[in-house]
Amino acid sequence: MSTVTLHYFGLGSLGRGEIVRLFLHELNIDYEDVLYTYDETWPSVNKAKDVSLTGTLPVLEIDDLRLYQHLPILRYLSRRAGAYDGETNHEKYLVDAVSDIYNDWRTGWVAQLTAKSPDYQATHVDKFHRLFTDFYSRDSSGPYLLGNKPTYVDFAVFQALDNDECIGCAPNPLSEPLTKLKEAVLARPNVKTYLAERATAK
Amino acid sequence: MAAETIPTLHYFDLGTLGRGEVIRLFLRDAGIEFKDIRHRYGTWSVESDKFKQQGITRTGKLPALIINGTILNQHVPILRYLSRDLGRYDGETNHKKFQVDAVADNYIDWRAQWVANIGNPSDDYKNKFLPMYYAAVAKYYSENNGPYLLGDKITYADFAVYQSVDNDERIGALPTELPAEIVKLREAIEGRPNIAAYIKENRPNKA
């Protein structure tokens, strides 16, 4: 099998690419990280090296394909693994809907990096904390969106919580369903060590 | 699909603008009869809690599609739900499904920008963002020679891309030169038997 390569910015645990990294660890897929500087030089670097046709990262090279857009990449990897998604149409919808809500959260988070709005936590974080909590309250048989069965969206929501924390805007207090999700992801065997190292590097 | 009740779509009275219209087009194309409820856009923000309590929307946002006894929010996930339900309108292999998903995801990014530019489209939106968006999407379309993203077979992403062209035109932001792949898609969608008349009726200025 050809080498799996993830192209992203050197942003530590921040941003869209880290979700793909985390998910690759979970799936036990070895990959090579190629990091770019996140600044105004990126468009010319991209042009010179021809990394991304859309100008955006992450890009994942896998199975002789170049894949773009982080959530579609997670879904590609889930189908490839035959796991990490719902089983019925409605379950798949729930996973998809929460990942779409996560996507809306991400747009606001990225805007906040430059806007530095004083109400970000009171408005944006609070609104999405309520939405995520509502969806994560529906199946209390386990910590994940679909109860005991982890799906790709759990890694995205985990990263949303992490990334808000990183910019000093964690939901406070974190709701019980989301606390359980966070603890469950942190304890997963394939990502545990990676996440522990990541925490030390911060 | 449960035959006893027809699905209900809740959206705003915005004509063809916005996320709800993508679902309307899709449902019509698929020949699914639905109740089309259009709420006043102006008062939604103060009424959204009330509609949430009434079980019309789970997230407080629209569109919401009530189907098979459940409330579905988030328009692109709704399209995928319907596609799976019908067993059509998606790719068949993992890679084809990815292509459809990736284009739909580009469209979602486009939509966030479009919403921010409805009133007075910025030069940055018109001259930088839109040419990049249409070029990126066209690149995906060029892989299968059109007119649809996957060639002859239409998928849910085609309706979304079509609506981005329509909605950009209506806010006066559509680039004068569109990639050939996008022009071809537009013609193909406007010629589809189940939606051709509906589209024409809502586009009085176009010959």
From TrEMBL, chain A:
One GO BP annotation of this record: glutathione metabolic process
Ranges where the GST N-terminal domain occurs: 4-85
A GO molecular-function annotation: glutathione transferase activity
One matching Pfam family: GST_N_2
Superkingdom assignment: Eukaryota
InterPro entries referenced in this protein's UniProt entry, alphabetically: Glutathione-S-Trfase_C-like (IPR010987), Glutathione-S-Trfase_C_sf (IPR036282), Glutathione_S-Trfase (IPR040079), Glutathione_S-Trfase_N (IPR004045), GST_C (IPR004046), GST_superfamily (IPR050213), Thioredoxin-like_sf (IPR036249)
Domain GST C-terminal stretches: 88-202
Gene3D superfamilies found in the cross-reference section: 1.20.1050.130
Family of the protein in this entry: Belongs to the GST superfamily.
The protein, known as: Glutathione S-transferase
Organism: Trichoderma asperellum (strain ATCC 204424 / CBS 433.97 / NBRC 101777)
Top-level taxonomy: Eukaryota, Fungi, Dikarya, Ascomycota, Pezizomycotina
UniProtKB/TrEMBL annotation, chain B:
InterPro entries documented for this protein: Glutathione-S-Trfase_C-like, Glutathione-S-Trfase_C_sf, Glutathione_S-Trfase, Glutathione_S-Trfase_N, GST_C, GST_superfamily, Thioredoxin-like_sf
Family named by the database record: Belongs to the GST superfamily.
Pfam families: GST_C_3, GST_N
Domain GST C-terminal: 93-207
Xref: PROSITE patterns: GST_CTER, GST_NTER
Protein source organism: Trichoderma asperellum (strain ATCC 204424 / CBS 433.97 / NBRC 101777)
Protein name in UniProt: Glutathione S-transferase
GO annotation (BP), single: glutathione metabolic process
